[in-house]
Amino acid sequence: MPENTPSASELRPTHPLALAPVAAPPASVDGFVRRFLQNLNFDQGVALSTSDDNDRYLALAGTVRDYLMARWLDDQAQQSRQQSKTVCYLSAEYLLGRQLDNNLLAARLTEIATEALAQCGIDIDDLRALEIEPGLGNGGLGRLAACFIDSLATMSIPTIGYGIRYEYGIFRQAFADGQQVEQPDAWLRLGSPWDFPHPEAAQTISFGGRTETYDDDGVERTRWVPEWNVLAVPYNMMVPGYHNGRVNTLRLWRAVATNAFDLHTFNSGDYVASVRAQTFAENISKVLYPEDSTPQGKELRLQQQYFFVAASIADFVEHVLPDGFDLTKLPERVIFQLNDTHPVIGVPELMRVLVDEKGMEWDAAWAITQKCFAYTCHTLLPEALEVWSVDLLGRLLPRHLEIIYRINDAFLLEVRERFGDDEMLIRDMSIIGEHPFRSVRMAYLATVAGSKVNGVAELHSQLLRDNVLKDFARMWPEKFTNVTNGVTPRRFLRLANPELSTLITETLGAGWTVDLERLRGLEAYADDPEFRERFAAVKAANKRRLSRVLAARDGTTIDDGHLLDVMIKRLHEYKRQTLKVLHIVSAYDEIVSGRVPVEKVQPRTFLFGAKAAPGYAMAKHIIHLINAVGEVVNADPRVEGRLKVLYPSNYNVTLAESIIPAADLSEQISLAGKEASGTGNMKLALNGALTIGTDDGANVEIRQLVGDDNFFLFGMSEPEVEALWAEGYRPADFYHEDERLRRAIDLIAAGAFSGGDRSVFEPLISNLLYDDRFMALADFGSYLDAQERVDAAYADQDAWVRSAILNVARSGFFSSDRAMRDYLDRIWHATPVH
Ligand SMILES: *Cc1c(COP(=O)(O)O)cnc(C)c1O
């Protein structure tokens, strides 16, 4: 290189544009049109006249991105400059829903974009419909993560959401002959305009191998000698706050084969093996496990968990913290929130980083680690508590297993000091379980390591303290707390229900979107006939809108005058979709047996939305039964169209946004003590559906808030469930005692919904009559009585609408903004940065 020629790295920008901060395009229709056409021409490489809808959608998404970009870059720079505490939300799932509308709303661009596209001859609704939602989650847990990061951005809390960019998200559900068929969700097929890959910020993540000790200046240390690596490449998504100019980051990791890994095999001359190895590495982020609550202990799943957590911790330590940061101060800069046990392997990983890589003493590292994690438990079902076999964990992560053993040794010593040598207690509390196989109990590891442990509704947190984690709660009562879940009012009211939003804004002003308690102001209008009329008109319009959506996708409709009764949630025995079906079958039987004159029947449309885990046979039988009952009931002329069963396939966030605003009745009928919280219940109440529900999860709090007059309570309480279980649950007793129940069961068993074939639903009926851990038959009578109260209440439309208004008015507590405030006060102690 000739002398005096500066190298590239010495070049300093001198052009004025290069010195100025990034500027957003002008927030005007003209500015939007110009940028949109630029994106269409230069990014999509097409002219407006030759572009198709997908080009236009991608250009539109790119334009919205451009508007948010300046703020995003600014907030990222600020995050590394400032020493404020960051919430790192670690979640294996984010069920985001569509991005376009949400981002337009957050950036105040909805009207500008609509008009700008209209001036280009494009109807924005056509482009909206094109977006495939990233289904990177199964259900409630993943949707909760998405609501939380929305609220944190809206509250200007420095946050990074960390997760996995699955190439295939939750499967697409279709029905064939009434049975579920799963199809791959190729959500990236048409491009992914909302995320930005950053290969330069990739992390190398190791697996396998062995550990060894070595002498480090007279100190014996341990290091991990792994066997293979993958690259974790971050893809950043924008998480814009609502109208506050804040843009946080959701960083999702994708697995890519490392060069080193490739070369090693390649040099051995086996090209085919080398390519296969590449595929093997990339499998890690290939597919979301479609399970709801029964972890399968599969090796690839553990690989996924370690992969994203190790990448996230390394990313935070190396890229987010400033160079030379004093790691003893880590708890002042970060809290890693563990969304269920999926990210718990992060505990030994942080210990490994601090002790093995940074040379910290064990005790100092443990003190730091304990302050940096907090754990949210999401279940009460014992089978849902994740365990990893020691064999598998030791093979995949040998150093982590050693660290877990050492954590456990110290912990069990503490237990002995505290409670004496009670060997039974030691076994019960040990992080290592011995039965039925030697395993690591991840919930226990999280509880031991976490600064706080929270349940997700009052009842759930109480049951965690009293049952699931009772020994731990006795040891550390101050560790345990509750944060009742919430949902974002931006997506689930403002966007999903524009007409109700307009009515609320006209009545109360605009502030409710970020201060949902203001909905209380609607109480004063519950008795105002004019307001009631407008409220009822909104509900009716939402039903017609849903009817159009269903007509377009399935050719079904919702008839005027029908009560819309919805049960939308994952298919699981504990949620008891069977109880709902038994109600429908019973109502049908009453008509066709002539016990109730058809003209006396309140017209109702029963709407289900639910996916079953592909390996969950009983759940699939239930899906089949719902569809089979629907086919018979909907076609039977004796019913005169008064009962109708709809089961649109592929329930997801997008479909939820159409169904929820239209619903009259929200079915939350889990066996008491089984549903941790539920969030669907909150979304529906917030949109003016009345709940029929058990005293379970957040139903308890919903009922307390909306009042008994505006809620249909039924079924056993949690202590009653325990008592019946202890005494011995005999479903056959209920069958024999309740004639309506017997007739409904007999109708199914006789083949009335399976063309006379008695074998089809035999497993399901046998389960209900002899096994059913979730005691559907025990609550049937009480459920039917409650449904009669529903019919009676609906007959008085004025009173019903009043109750619906009061449900909206009193649901402000269920905003995820409030949930975030509770996490901040009780667990995170982080503050907003404006
Ligand atoms: C809210 C939501 C859930 C959770 O529903 P629950 O009734 O609480 O189980 C599941 N799936 C989707 C798509 C949701 O939006």
From TrEMBL:
Q: Where is the signal peptide?
A: none
- Short name of one Pfam family: Phosphorylase
Q: Which EC number(s) does the record attach to this protein?
A: 2.4.1.1
Instruction: Tell me which SUPFAM superfamilies the record gives.
Output: UDP-Glycosyltransferase/glycogen phosphorylase
Which parts pass through the membrane?
Answer: none
Q: What class of enzyme is it?
A: transferase
* Reactions catalysed: [(1->4)-alpha-D-glucosyl](n) + phosphate = [(1->4)-alpha-D-glucosyl](n-1) + alpha-D-glucose 1-phosphate
* Claim: Lipid metabolism is one of the keywords in the record: no
Name the UniProt key words of this record, in alphabetical order: Carbohydrate metabolism, Glycosyltransferase, Pyridoxal phosphate, Transferase
Q: Which InterPro entries match?
A: Glycg_phsphrylas (IPR011833), Glyco_trans_35 (IPR000811), Pyridoxal_P_attach_site (IPR035090)
Q: Required co-factor?
A: pyridoxal 5'-phosphate
Concerning its family, UniProt says:
Belongs to the glycogen phosphorylase family.
Q: What does this protein do?
A: Phosphorylase is an important allosteric enzyme in carbohydrate metabolism. Enzymes from different sources differ in their regulatory mechanisms and in their natural substrates. However, all known phosphorylases share catalytic and structural properties.
Q: Which PANTHER family match?
A: GLYCOGEN PHOSPHORYLASE, GLYCOGEN PHOSPHORYLASE, LIVER FORM
Recorded protein name is Alpha-1,4 glucan phosphorylase
Q: Which organism is it from?
A: Microbacterium mcarthurae
